[in-house]
Amino acid sequence: MPPTLVVMLGGMDGGASEQLLRSALEASALDTIDAALVSDRFERVLLLADRPPVLDVPAGVTVEVDRGAEPFHYGRRLVRAIAEHHLDAVAYVGAGSAPLLGGDALAALIAPIAHAPEVGRVVTNNRFSADCFALAPATLLARLDPPPPSDNGVPRRLRDEHGVEVIELPRTLETQYNLDSPIDLLALDLTRRARPRLAAILRAAGVDHPRVREACAVFVDRTREVMLAGRVSSNTWAYLEREAACRVRLLAEERGMQAAGTDADGTARSLLGQWIAEAGAERAFGALLPELCDAAFVDIRPALVHLGIRPSRADRFAADLGRADLIEDGALRAIVEAANASPVPVVLGGHSLVGGVTQLLVQWAWDEHDAGRL
User: Fold this and answer.
1) Could you give all domains of the chain from N- to C-terminal order, each with its CATH number?
2) Residue 71: its pLDDT value, please?
3) From CA 311, how far away is CA 259, in angstroms rounded?
4) Which residue, 48, 148, 257, 285, is most buried by CB atoms nearer than 10 A?
5) Whole-angstrom distance, CA of residue 362 vs CA of residue 368
6) CA distance linking residue 308 with residue 303, whole number of Å
7) How far apart are the C-alpha atoms of 345 and 213, rounded to whole Å?
């Protein structure tokens, strides 16, 4: 029997930027569901949400809204859905985990579980920090004790605790891109890669960043140099070496920070954080950084942990868009103001900024350059 697709939508509320991301997550979830339905590879589709969707849900999709009787817990909620619907095989996708995954990619996710070995098999986009996975038999998830608090560690724990075979999909832009921040939306909007529902949300929102275009111009100039800092993968580095005309300076640190929990306990250490602590944000971005590059894309999250800065999600989102005026946390606001005032364009963000977002922006830069607009 074909697997059931389970999509989870929730956990995003707050101010204007958070509401924008919530709307984008809902639109992306429904775009992914459309792709799954068109593929005709799934027995059924379940949408598990914390509140009723605002947009029209495709016909035939089962929507279950959280009962609210107890605090949401990722693992317990998914296990309950598997048990209540008697699922033999399941494919799980977070609302923002698959904005670029089409029907063929979803089919590739589930194909290996059609003939799973006796120990079980899980297929994922990342064995160490999963955003989506397919599992057979689905009841294996209930054997994880304690239940997983998030999707990230599910494949690794199934392997380590129960010997389940893990298959990882090729790490491509399509399998790795997800929606965590408004900067992810900006990149999809610029490159026109968003699917119909999400594209409509982005057109209406008009997401912008004052220095992205200036920073992207460096990618297509062989006389200049770009810096990427933060949780940069070897895949992103290889992509830049292959596709960007400029020289590349890399500061890769704290890969796997969330999976290891060093962000939560504050033990993540960052060279960039040390730099800001020693020199001060104004000198770090105003004098030292311009000596090293002509533009910088900075995953600022490890540095914030190192510096002991714990901003709200709304503040993080405002920082990603360069909106210092919207940031309440004084320490973060000072960093963003310094980055905005830097003689070289600096774009701040999270993990995805120095991953899929960078790759999309390089593609966009070449398109703009070839059209004479950059």
Assistant:
1) 4-176 (3.90.550.10), 210-370 (no CATH)
2) 86
3) 20
4) 285
5) 10
6) 9
7) 9
DSSP label of 153: T
The C-alpha atoms of residue 226 and residue 236 are separated, in whole angstroms, by 13
Contact 92, 155 (CB under 8 A): no
Helix axes 196-205, 182-191, angle to 10 degrees: 110
Supply the pTM of this predicted model. 0.92
- Predicted confidence at residue 70, as pLDDT, reads 78
Composition of the chain by helix, strand, coil, percent to 5: 50, 15, 40
**pLDDT of amino acid 13:** 86
In this structure, the chain runs to a length of: 374
Q: Is the pLDDT at 95 greater than 80, yes or no?
A: yes
Please name the residue that has the structure tokens 């098999």. Answer: 121
How big is the CA angle at 98 (ends 162 and 5), to the nearest 5 degrees?
A: 60
- Asked whether the beta carbons of 169 and 124 are under 8 A apart, the reply is yes
Contact between residue 52 and residue 225 where contact means Cβ atoms under 8 Å apart: no
Tokens read off for 225: 């140099």
3-class secondary-structure state, position 89: coil
